[in-house]
């Protein structure tokens, strides 16, 4: 039997440990039954214990990957992950302006779980000026949101104000992931393009196997959007689904272990 499947694109760095970056993206997309293509922005030597080395790729091969994908596939939704530095951010933004890949989810990855920087300080302004205005959805975690608005966010009111400020910078829909706010309450803060606010809630899962949660969240969003799900439903699906697979641990690696991307087999959440 032949059938069409939605085609999606991840623009991200690789993780030799298999749990984050493009590896997590592709596993999530596979789990969601969409076809994953990938533009690699850089390579990391990484495992569940940390990032040992990182090498951004030359922009010429990034440009060429964009062209190869654009010339052959009908991409229905796209996401960005680790972009490393100013040159790579500018290159990716230019390609995203050139090609039309459908809704863009920007995951403004800055720091890996172990603390390694995946975006230079000098690249922040370029990210805000060039990439953010292209974003249909932006999904910063709390520390990333703080960098974008350049101030501390300590209360929920601070976070809502930051959502408004990030929207004013050009991102249509803003999701600030509250996972770093407190380990008791697990809320994500959403400001939709129409000005509506909503909170995504979920129980806090007591686990250290959280390598790639952000990548998996944004990949769930991009996959569901490619399948035509409405944004609000997409965000709720992603949140509930992630929460469920966090509870379905696999024992891999010796640090912050990866998520269980087979988790779909054990949940009632429709993806
Ligand atoms: N232990 C946990 N229990 C429940 N939900 C969690 C847990 N850790 C993360 N999440 C949820 O996972 C999603 C991704 O959040 P998080 O803030 O961890 O992303 P991130 O920091 O960008 O991840 P990454 O380490 O991949 O960069 C959010 O919806 C967050 O609330
Ligand atoms: C390559 C890469 N992208 C993103 C993250 C964040 O999870 C990571 N740890 N590594």
From TrEMBL:
Ranges in a coiled coil: none
The EC number(s) attached to this protein equal: 2.7.1.49, 2.7.4.7
Q: Which UniProt keywords apply?
A: Kinase, Thiamine biosynthesis, Transferase
Q: Which residues form the Pyridoxamine kinase/Phosphomethylpyrimidine kinase domain?
A: 15-260
Catalysed reaction equations from the record? 4-amino-2-methyl-5-(phosphooxymethyl)pyrimidine + ATP = 4-amino-2-methyl-5-(diphosphooxymethyl)pyrimidine + ADP; 4-amino-5-hydroxymethyl-2-methylpyrimidine + ATP = 4-amino-2-methyl-5-(phosphooxymethyl)pyrimidine + ADP + H(+)
The metabolic or biological pathway listed in the UniProt record of this protein is: Cofactor biosynthesis; thiamine diphosphate biosynthesis; 4-amino-2-methyl-5-diphosphomethylpyrimidine from 5-amino-1-(5-phospho-D-ribosyl)imidazole: step 2/3; Cofactor biosynthesis; thiamine diphosphate biosynthesis; 4-amino-2-methyl-5-diphosphomethylpyrimidine from 5-amino-1-(5-phospho-D-ribosyl)imidazole: step 3/3
Annotated TM spans: none
Q: Which GO terms describe its molecular function?
A: hydroxymethylpyrimidine kinase activity
- Family from the record: Belongs to the ThiD family.
The protein depicted here goes by the name Hydroxymethylpyrimidine/phosphomethylpyrimidine kinase
Q: Which organism is it from?
A: Convivina praedatoris
């Amino acid at each position: 039997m032949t059938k069409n499947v939605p085609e999606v694109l991840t623009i991200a760095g690789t993780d030799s440990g298999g749990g984050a970056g493009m590896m997590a993206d592709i596993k999530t997309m596979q789990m969601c039954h969409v076809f994953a293509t990938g533009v690699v922005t850089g390579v990391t030597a990484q495992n569940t214990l940390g990032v040992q080395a990182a090498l951004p790729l030359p922009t010429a091969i990034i440009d060429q990957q964009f062209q190869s994908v654009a010339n052959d596939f009908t991409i229905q939704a796209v996401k960005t992950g680790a972009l490393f530095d100013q040159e790579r951010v500018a290159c990716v933004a230019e390609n995203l302006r050139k090609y039309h890949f459908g809704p863009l989810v920007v995951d403004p990855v800055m720091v890996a779980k172990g603390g390694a920087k995946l975006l230079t300080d000098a690249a922040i302004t370029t990210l805000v000026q060039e990439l953010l205005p292209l974003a249909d959805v932006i999904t910063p975690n709390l520390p990333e949101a703080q960098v974008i608005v350049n101030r501390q966010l300590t209360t929920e009111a601070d976070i809502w104000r930051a959502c408004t400020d990030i929207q004013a910078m050009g991102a249509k829909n803003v999701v600030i992931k509250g996972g770093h706010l407190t380990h008791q309450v697990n809320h994500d803060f959403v400001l939709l393009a129409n000005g509506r606010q909503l909170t995504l809630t979920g129980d806090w899962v007591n686990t250290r196997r959280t390598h790639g949660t952000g990548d998996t969240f944004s990949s769930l969003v991009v996959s569901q959007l490619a399948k035509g799900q409405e944004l609000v439903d997409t965000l709720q699906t992603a949140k509930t689904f992630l929460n469920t697979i966090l509870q379905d641990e696999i024992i891999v690696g010796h640090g912050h272990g990866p998520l269980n991307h087979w988790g779909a087999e054990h949940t009632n959440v429709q993806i």
